[in-house]
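User: Sequence in, structure out. Go.
Assistant: Echoing your sequence, followed by the structure tokens.
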Amino acid sequence: MHDPLWAPGDTVVERFLRPDGSIGQHHPLRVIADDGTVLLGWLPADTPIIGSRLADGRLFREAPLQERFRVPRVRVADFWRDTSTLRRIADDEWSSVWWFFDADGRFLNWYVNLEVPLGRTPSGPDRIDGILDVAVEPGGRWQWKDEDEAEEAVLAGRITAGQLERLRAEGERIGALAAAERFPFDGTWTDFRPDPDWPAPGLPGGLL
């Protein structure tokens, strides 16, 4: 059976799974391009998503670090806020690269979400969020994000020490590309504009 192949204009849903196989967040993406192994998708600001909160009602960042990966989470209806993102999701890479754009369509910076790839379903790509991330500024300067959370996630069993080692290696690979201003940090797609005739991607019903 071949992996799904999506056409420009299709809507897919990127799902972030937890280690126990349950589904956390759902992010709908408008397909810009797909070759069967690398998906380019668009998520505009204010698009409805399925997010997550701690079961006691707090936002993730409102909890002390030692509690963030130990308190159960629940899915909630939410919106993608502040920036629009163009995402490059490669099936075999432990990261996805996000181009951030402001409300006027100006490119801001890149954010590299380090992830465990889980392949494709008919509805979209599945990933496990690796907690650790990399932020890249125009000009190639880059830095780690959320290192303390990644270490705590290992202690809490959210990711394994082996996965974190692999994610760090991926981050170093990404950082080297950024420092050299090589693809995808060479200016490609920084002038991206979505087709004005395409509506924002939507979520299927029944997810909550």
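User: And one key feature?
Assistant: The radius of gyration is 17 Å.
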